[in-house]
Amino acid sequence: MDLFDKDGVRLTVDDTIATVTLTNPAKRNAQSPALWRALTEAGRSLPGTVRVVVLRGEGKSFSAGLDRQAFTPEGFEGEPSFLDLARGSDEQLDATIAEYQEAFTWWRRNDIVTIAAVQGHAIGAGFQLALACDLRVVADDVQFAMRETSLGLVPDLGGTQPLTALVGYARALEICATGRFVHAEEAERIGLANLAVPGAELDSAVRDLAAALLAAPREAVIETKALLRGAAGRGYDEQRTAERAAQARRLRDLAGLAD
């Protein structure tokens, strides 16, 4: 069932699995503020039955990053250009970037598990969108790159935290500062990708992973995801306390004693 299809984003729901598809292959799924708003709407539109969300891009590339039109004086029709934003107040600029970031934040909600199915180019904003998901399955032709620094900018769409968490500070700095490509074999080896497969097998590999995620009881997955997401910010004893509290909730629920 298609819930909506606009501004380069299509949301389809099949019971417990939702698919968010970038639908502008002619421009290699280049991103714009309108697309980011559509992605935000997709997150808000998910029915409560959805447990797994798959993010994919049509065509040869997952997403080649920000549409270069953003850097022209006229920008996008009906949108403030980046030059106009730069001339505005700090408060206005901060609020605008925060709005853009919303498209990249909901993917880590505890009540869903998100999978990016990535082929071809995933550059800049495309790389950060793949990083927004919990898991990444990549085709053997994938090319990740963080180009913002090379353009005199910084990655500002939520990608720096998950990148550092996945590969460590030194590797994250090197990837961002050089803007180099990370290919499939390296992506899997350093933890950027959970799995790398031939391009023809990408869809089936994602389907298999989604099915495996759906095999466990939903509440157990939600509690486990919350524990793992919070682990980096807790000490060892704090994490053990969080584990005990989560397990108590699960045991009471299984015993029919939940509040």
Could you explain the architecture of this structure?
Helix content is 44%, strand content 17%. The protein contains ten helices and ten strands. It has helices spanning 33-44, 82-87, 90-105, 125-132, 160-167, 169-178, 184-190, 202-214, 218-231, 236-254; strands spanning 2-6, 9-14, 17-22, 52-57, 113-118, 121-123, 135-139, 143-145, 182-183, 195-197. The protein has a seven-stranded mixed sheet with strand order 1-2-3-4-5-7-10, sandwiched between helices. Helix 1 (33-44) links the parallel strand 3 and strand 4 (52-57). Helix 1 (33-44) packs across helix 3 and helix 9 runs antiparallel to helix 10 (236-254).
Task: Considering the chains and any ligands shown, give keywords for the structure.
alpha/beta, 7-stranded mixed sheet, 10 helices
Determine Rg (CA atoms, Å).
Answer: 19 Å
**Biggest beta-sheet profile:** 7 strands, mixed
Q: Classify the helix fraction into a percent range.
A: 40-55%
Number of strands: 10
Q: How far apart are the first and last residues' alpha carbons, in Å?
A: 35 Å
